[in-house]
Prior knowledge:
Strand content: 35-45%
CATH architecture: 2-Layer Sandwich
Radius of gyration: 16 Å
Shape: globular
CATH class: Alpha Beta
Order of helices and strands: EEHEEHEEEEEEH
Number of strands: 10
CATH superfamily: START domain
Number of domains: 1
Number of helices: 3
Mean pLDDT: 83
Structural class: alpha+beta
Distance between the termini: 46 Å
Strand order of the largest sheet: 1-4-10-9-8-7-6-5
Amino acid sequence: MLSNPQNPSSFLLERIATTTTGGCNKQISRPCATNRVPDSVARYHTHAVGQNQCCSAVIQQINSPVSTVWSVVRRFDNPQAYKHFVKSCHVVDGNGDVGTLREVHVISGLPAAKSTERLEILDDERHVLSFSVVGGDHRLANYRSVTTLHPTPTGNGTVVVESYVVDIPPGNTKEETFGFVDTIVKCNLQSLAKIAENKFRPK
């Protein structure tokens, strides 16, 4: 059974319900973020969602420029810089380019011990990072995450969009899966906002 960590506040969550029809292996591509996402990155948040999968997206505004936020997000080798549920991480193959594998160890209290993750997209021009979970000791099978950054209308801040698709674990409902994963993502983005804003604050 998935259990939720403490539920943070001050987030705007926009979810698109996903359904499939037809055979058991039928997949339908669904957008997991709303039209608030710029066209230049919207395609990254469209996931192929299977019958026993769900997808969701979390949107977070940060009072810091894209360059500052991206300097934290793009470090595939150092997720613990802002992901507080990560205890440690080390690269097991690759040098930080697409295809790099990392092994992440999570803190106690979660239904997981470690996760092996592959870097799928690292686009410094469009500010897009994506990774997929390819192994480990956890219940989030076939998890894939995409994070994009783009400037606020004033140009002084950053809007972060993180979407994901994941299998619904046996014995859990779609709602339980949403509740658990959304809370993790929200905590991560809240932490990212604090770190990026502290980095940008004049000394």
